[in-house]
Predict the structure.
Amino acid sequence: MTESFAFEPRNAAECMEVLQQDTLVPRGLGRSYADQATNDQHYVAVCTKMNYFMAWDEANGILECQSGTSLEEIINTFGPKGWLPMICPGTKFVTIGGAIANDIHGKAHHIDGSFVNCVLSFTIMLADGRILTASRTENEDLFWANFGGLGLLGVILTAKIKLRKIETTYFRQKSMVIKDLDHMLEAVTKYDETFNYSVAWIDALATGKKLGSGVLTLGNAAKLNELPEKLKADPLKLHATSKLFVPFFLPSFVLNGLTVRMMNKVIAFVQNSPKDFVHYEKFFFPLDAINNWNRGYGKRGFIQYQFVIPEANGRQNLKEILELIAASGCRPFLNVFKKMGEGQGILSFPFKGYTLAIDFPVSRELHAFTPKLDEKVLSAGGRLYLGKDGMLTAAMFRAMYPQYEQWLAVKRKYDPHDRFSSNIGRRLELSARS
Ligand SMILES: Cc1cc2nc3c(=O)[nH]c(=O)nc-3n(C[C@H](O)[C@H](O)[C@H](O)COP(=O)(O)OP(=O)(O)OC[C@H]3O[C@@H](n4cnc5c(N)ncnc54)[C@H](O)[C@@H]3O)c2cc1C
């Protein structure tokens, strides 16, 4: 349980006013999974009112907007004009500030890389009130340290980002049932060459010969001439806002071994969709269709544990990790697997290798289990995604991100007195004084 003082600034001056009294951390739509955008007993600047579009260069597809603008707002405005964000995570309810601070990635990471690849520059308010522009050629250290910088270097105010030209808001999709881990690794390697979007659901309860089995979903943006006649009538259609929701927290006993197994079968069936063309909404953001979906995990909630490990010895390491999870008794629920491309920002999560994101309902066993999993991931040469982590220790973080000293040097330069501070910053000792 944590309590912070939230305020909703409309500009840099309002952030500065608070910063002169106390520490703060910026926050977007709060879609990171743990303590990234909280600041116990101190301030949180909820930036969602800083959400104006400032300039649009149609010829080059470059949008300048305030940092509290969400991907949803961008899609709703620019989708019908034939443009979508270049990098889409699994939800559209994220702001540009949040997307930069976690250097988010999507299903096309192996082709498009992470969010940094669509950002030309941003402006940021620093601890001393200066507003600087950061880009690949101006204040480069500040630029690279903010991708994965968890809001601990300043308040990002505006950004220039590149959108992607599209002919339709549909995707040509192909799904296939995967029988085991060898099949999975062979399929992702083979199809990542021909499909820009690729993600797999893995049945993390499967063991023995079925270890690593699941469903691989692949896709490419659909061109206008490929669409079936009935979709051609409105090729840039937007999706209506979903009215489905989970009305209350489900009791924890609902997620027992049996129901998780049954749900895994349902997910496998739904994922293996026979539909050739799917709308971007279903393709990118399936969970957005159910408001308050997190209530399904009960009041104790869940953690999402996402790691990436190198390709070298990847098969053996994945096998051991999946066996460890299946034997843990921790009831892994939604497990998303993908092959990643190269990473870039100083503390950005991705690097070339295999990533697996697992939802675990919070339980007593889980607290004892994740440190074991951390050790295994580390020994495989891997690391956790800080945008989702809620349990890593400072020592384990430093072992997983040995480049942390390089980031701390930037922190000491721009925020020597730790005016920007947060719960995760304290937990992982991401402080100028450490
Ligand atoms: C259903 C779901 C699916 C997801 N799928 C993916 C996925 O596929 N890939 C992926 O990478 N992530 C994914 N995420 C995580 C999500 O994309 C990131 O956590 C993202 O950063 C959330 O953005 P936000 O606006 O909600 O930021 P918040 O959660 O509010 O904040 C995240 C971080 O950004 C910082 N921040 C926010 N605004 C600013 C600002 N103006 N200036 C400086 N720092 C700022 C905060 O301090 C914090 O450290 C998913 C999350 C959910 C809930």
Observations:
- Residues 5-166+402-427 form a domain with the Uridine Diphospho-n-acetylenolpyruvylglucosamine Reductase; domain 3 fold (CATH 3.30.465.10).
- The mean pLDDT is 92.
